Amino acid sequence: MAVAAAPDKVSKQLEANYAAITVAFQHNDLNGIAKFLASDFTAHDIGGVAHLRSEVLKDFKTQMAIVKDVTWVRKVTNLSMSGKTALVTVSGKFNGWLMGANGKKQKIELLATAKDSWVDTGAKWLIKSTTVLKRTVTIDGKPMKLPGK
Fold this sequence. Notes:
By secondary structure, the chain is α+β, with helices and mostly antiparallel strands. It has one domain (7-143): Nuclear Transport Factor 2, Chain: A (Roll), CATH 3.10.450.50. It has helices at residues 7-26, 30-34, 53-66, and strands at 37-44, 50-52, 68-82, 85-99, 105-120, 125-139, 142-143. Strands 1, 2, 3, 4, 5, 6 and 7 form a seven-stranded mixed beta sheet that branches. Strand 5 and strand 6 form a beta hairpin. The longest helix is centred in the N-terminal third of the chain and has 20 residues, at 7-26. It is globular and about 50 Å long. The termini are far apart.
């Protein structure tokens, strides 16, 4: 019988996975992001709308093309284990630059809290779902209205 991983060890591993996703984003490496998403991955926005893995990857591809000089730090703030599944609350801060309609660089900042479900496959941890609990986006310090809010 396998022994369950200690929560602090799991938390550190998942934070390392989030950091690897950030590096993949910074290098326009869609496959580097995709390798952490389960084949049946879904993302749920604040309004409850579910987005399939393919939609999420398409959105990442678009974002990587337009947002530059990205920093994206995430921290696991709560973790509970159920068998090979880790349910985590994660807080994140995403910063970068994009070109505005006026041709000038604009600073984008996203602050978000999500509930993520990760599954231990034995070889690695894969994220099965994410549900956005809270998010704030600003462009040049001004709040941006987002769908689903």
